[in-house]
User: Fold SMc04008-like domain-containing protein from Rehaibacterium terrae.
Amino acid sequence: MSDTVSPVVEYEAAAFRRLLEHLRRRSDVQNIDLMILAGFCRNCLADWYREAAEAAGATMSREQAREAIYGMPFAEWKAKYQREATPEQLAAFEASQKKHG
Assistant:
């Protein structure tokens, strides 16, 4: 493996860090809202992050990956910011599953 990182990888990493910073600032945006609109959420990002780490030979737990994405332990983020989904959100989520499926 080369000691240098390609500029494209650096750009992707910078964009990913900016996305994480944005999501951390926007704790008012619930995961269910992200799932409804985009078909992915912070937990999906954590799963993808863990899968990438494991593909590179690293061992990472689900909780470690979530902490990397949320910037704090998931249980702490959930207690501070996660609200109960409304019936409207649940219905929209159900409908979106057909679209994002």
Observations:
- The longest helix spans residues 7-25.
